[in-house]
Amino acid sequence: MVTEAFDVEQSAAALAAQHPAEIIEAALQRFSPKLTISFSGAEDVVLVDMASRVGLPFRVFSLDTGRLHPETLEFLETIRDRYDVAIETFFPQPEAVQQLVEEKGLFSFRRDGHQECCGIRKVEPLRRALADGVDAYVTGQRRDQSPGTRDEIPVVQLDPGFSVDPDRPLVKWNPLANWSSAQVWQYILEHQVPYNPLHDQGFKSIGCAPCTRVTNPGEHERAGRWWWEEATKKECGLHAMNLDK
Fold first, then answer.
1. Which one from 117, 118, 208, 236 is the annotated catalytic residue?
2. pTM of the entire structure?
3. How many domains does the chain contain in total?
């Protein structure tokens, strides 16, 4: 298997100080075409832009939870057209959503935490997104995004939690790990990369509409996500390994 001979720790050390574009190029050179980019419709659009400049084939996927802002859905189409790339969209299982809503209503996550809802609307669809012909995937995680959960993420790591076969480890790339929000936005502006119009309305971190609010001046960007919960719990399950430190 291609991933069996890939030394993750060695690669993480060698690429730790490299520019995100160089990290993505290394990822593509190793795993194209069996590499996919996780695109949330937020500022991680820079990943698609950087990958498109390498000239090697890659895939892009997005998780449509059924509760995204209309602006986010339109933005996905903007990216599809701009980069001439198919965005594979994965939806939650309708039976699971229906059962949750019937038993607990539409906003149970504000009473008992967001993990159950995110598990149905995000985590299970992600497993399907990574199950078919994928050896590696790219995320927009940054160390400065979430206090206490993302401050130690490497630029490349194994993700056993989403590996279909334990003998075929899934490789997870985080090219933006060392960048700040300011650096991401500098890239967006310098390269005229399209971005979600919700950012112009004060949204710094964008997720599902009921779980995302505009951040106030001086607040951390993730303060607008699940604002009724502690900062150390602001992971939806897609990056659960961040909590196992």
1. 236
2. 0.89
3. 1
